[in-house]
Task: structure prediction
Amino acid sequence: MKQKDRIIITIDGPAGVGKSTVARMLARRLDAVFLDTGAMYRAVTLAAVEHGIDPADTSKAQTLFDLCRFEFRSENETTKVFIDGQDKTAAIRDPKITEQIKYIASAPSLRGKLVQMQQDFAAGCRRIVTEGRDQGTVAFPDANVKFFITADAEERARRRHRDLTVAGKDISLEAVFAQQQARDASDENRVVGPLKPAEDAVMIDATIPTAEQIVDKMETIVRKRLRAGKN
Ligand code: C5P
Result:
């Protein structure tokens, strides 16, 4: 499908800001496919760990990447992850994996391959809502609408802690907060694809409003922008 026939909405922002929740809801309202690009960085990190490779050794991780078969499928508003045919959708969420993603996320050649995978995935979608850190800046600079979501750091940690607890993970709020701060610093400071808003991104503060209120605002902006684009 040609770029001009597709609708691409990007949502970027730091860890725990609720990007996946609002991206999923917005995708549902727009009848679009939802893509969670963090799942890709998680999958490559998990593959390394499962093969006994230290993710910090990015040259070995890259060799492994070329040998593994990664598949990302959108099913029931979730980005399902398969490595060599095995469903790893739950395993990639383990906090031990989360802690180690920074190495893969900072490796320029691996980022290049994952961005290509994201673009290939989008090429097969009529409408897509994709979320991550560099979707509006690197992966889809020509997106129809770009959002960048921020929220108070303590509030973000509380939300992530609650989600992890609901998912049965045993981790303290303090540990989640520390991990989040380290992840933000690493995401913001890497040379390639750092976490930052695109110049033309719509900024949204998610500290106080509910997900429903945020999505209402996003949907209004998207529909207005798409209508304007048709004239
Ligand atoms: O979004 P999520 O928390 O699952 O992302 C996990 C990690 O993957 C992030 O902390 C970031 O380091 C990396 N990531 C990235 N670029 C993206 C999406 C995620 O570097 N587009």
Observations:
- The two ends are 22 Å apart (CA to CA).
